[in-house]
Design brief:
The chain has helices at about 10-20, 30-40, 60-70, 85-90, 105-120, 125-135, 145-160, 170-180, 180-195, and strands at about 5, 25-30, 45-50, 75-80, 100. By secondary structure, the protein is of the alpha/beta class.
Length: about 210
Amino acid sequence: MATILIVEDDPRQLRLYSKALRGYRLTCVSHATAALASIRTEVPDLIILDHILDQGERGTDFLPRLKDAAAHVPVIVISGSLGLREQLQALQGPRAAHYVLEKPVDLDALEQTVEVALTECGLGETIRTLQSLEHTEKLDPSEPDRRFTERLARQHHLLKRLRGTTERPNISALARDHHVARKTIIRDLQDLIRRRQLPAELYPEWETEAGAED
């Protein structure tokens, strides 16, 4: 399951989010200072950030620090008090949020936004940027930087395909789909499990199988 860090101090809102986001692994904290500490322990796949928080903190004030700590993680800001100008400010610049949703939150809209943020924003967006830069620079396919981007893109595709399933991955089929060796897929699964993006139960042999370079 994808991991979502929810920064919210209202128990009623947390109950709503827990109901709407049952298919995800949720970590909940009541203020942004605790969110920064949580990110140092485990980087989430998505952050849901309320604007008015416990201890007098304002979520948007912490947005740049959260993005500095995890630049590739998409952020959804939730607020019932931000004006249009403040919403635009939260969505602009190098350390911006991806979305702003107003309270009362429409749970269907929240679910849809979370799904898009997880699949298309964040890591997926980073990969597209790297691929665009490589195309512009006309890098040779054998260049180490190019190989890193290809591995990252492949792992992102695997993550989208396997996330939420309990079926054991078919290593041979995945290798054929991605035109790589089985050992490459095994190494990718090891990386994803090691980063806690996939559960170890999905591929129990991940610690004993030896990954190798392409």
